[in-house]
Amino acid sequence: MLVGLWAGSTGFSYAQSVSLSGISGSKALVVIDGAAPRFLAAGQAHQGVRLVSVQGESAVVEIGGQRQTLRLGEAPVSLGGGGAEAGGAQRVVLTADGSGHFMPQGQINGRAVQFMVDTGATQIIMGESEAKRINLDYQRGQRVTVQTANGTAPGYRVTLDSVRVGDAQVHAVAAIVLPQPMPFVLLGNSFLTRFQMQRNNDQLTLERRY
């Protein structure tokens, strides 16, 4: 996982990217801003990145007072732009996984979810089980009939209070909840059209429109 945090008005820049390259015992091999890999033990810090702990194939680091979990083999995510307050970051860079999919971690109404970017989906789409897990009161939404790959299906149209990918947060985002289980939440155009999208090889850059 690649994470980035930029300072607000302080003028101090923390490391822009951190990735987990390997684990040896209680030490994590991290790559900071593309430099040579460096082993860190719990409590050690380098270039504003402090290793908190190592467990299994993951490591927890602290950057600028915020903790992030890095996992071996996880699709990288890079964040940039302004501070995280109010409108959030103005720029997000996603890196495709081994299958060519963009699978960022994110939040809906403050609850963690696993997204998959789908430019063919008009709205954010999730299954009922996921909606229940994040305590979304979807049954108060508008009943709709949705065309899927397997034919038509009943669903609920709802408005999400907030959707966050990295430090980029968007409010009042349209979504559809479908009855069938889904392994992830489709990050559709009701979120994506708030950004200017540009793909370059295995990277997808989202620049905030508004």
UniProtKB/TrEMBL annotation:
One of its GO terms (molecular function) is aspartic-type endopeptidase activity. Its EC number is 3.4.23.-. One of its GO terms (biological process) is proteolysis. Residues 113-191 form the Peptidase A2 domain. Keywords: Hydrolase, Protease. It holds the Pfam family gag-asp_proteas. CDD domains: retropepsin_like_bacteria. InterPro entries: Clan_AA_Asp_peptidase_C, Peptidase_A2_cat, Peptidase_aspartic_dom_sf, Retropepsin-like_bacterial. NCBIfam families: clan_AA_DTGA. This is TIGR02281 family clan AA aspartic protease. It comes from Hydrogenophaga borbori.
